[in-house]
Amino acid sequence: MSFPLSLIQRKPARPLLTLATLLTLATLLTLATLAGPGRYPWGFAQEKSPTVVQKVQKQGDPVEFLLPTPDGAPLDAEKLRGKTVLLCFAARDFPLIRPLLRQMNDIADSHPRVTLCLVLTNGDQPRDRDFISDAELKAWRDQLHFSHLLARDPRGSLLFRRLNLSILPSFVLLRKDGTVALIREGLDPATSLTEQIRPDLLRAAQAD
């Protein structure tokens, strides 16, 4: 967050900033760092990146994105055209991450024509409290024998916010033309995600 230079620049003809003004500026800076898009269900907010310009996702338009991956080459929405894609937004430290991965495997087994992608919202800067490096992500993926696509959406700044998602995990099913077929937020570990979204998966995968 930035402020006009005139608010903090000293000029000989004007008095120094008052203590009250300094406290106000400090409060604004604190509030700015606490703002964030997706919130974990238990209430921890993710910080908002001030450098990202948000694009408006219009209803009915194909979803465009270019998400970084731990392997270097970005995940490009254009290269996924012609495929039914399920984007699963989560964080590596999400308590239900392992049940989520199992449910993704179940979907892959029962719907092999659906391409699955795990999109992690962990920060990519060392100053981020949930920072995870690409090397750590690759080691984590190998440890879990995770075989689906893995991409990053740091702080939810690239796609999560644009799709108006609010909690983790969230699921976005894309048709072959890139348009949104389904959005579902939250995960009930006691029920099968496959069964919950089976009709949508079948319709999206079979559509020409």
User: How many alpha or pi helices?
Assistant: 5
Secondary-structure content class: alpha/beta
The count of DSSP E runs of length 2 or more, i.e. the number of strands, is: 7
The CATH architecture classification of one domain is: 3-Layer(aba) Sandwich
Percent of residues in helices: 25-40%
Q: Summarize this, please?
A:
The strands form two sheets. This protein has a five-stranded mixed beta sheet, covered by helices on one side. Strands 1-2 form a two-stranded antiparallel sheet. The protein is 28% helix and 16% strand.
Explain the overall architecture.
The protein has 208 residues and is of the alpha/beta class. The chain has a domain of 141 residues: 3-Layer(aba) Sandwich (Glutaredoxin). It is 28% helix and 16% strand. It has 5 helices and 7 strands; from the N terminus they run ααβββαβαβββα. The strands form 2 sheets. Strands 5-4-3-6-7 form a 5-stranded mixed beta sheet, with helices on one face. A two-stranded antiparallel sheet has the order 1-2.
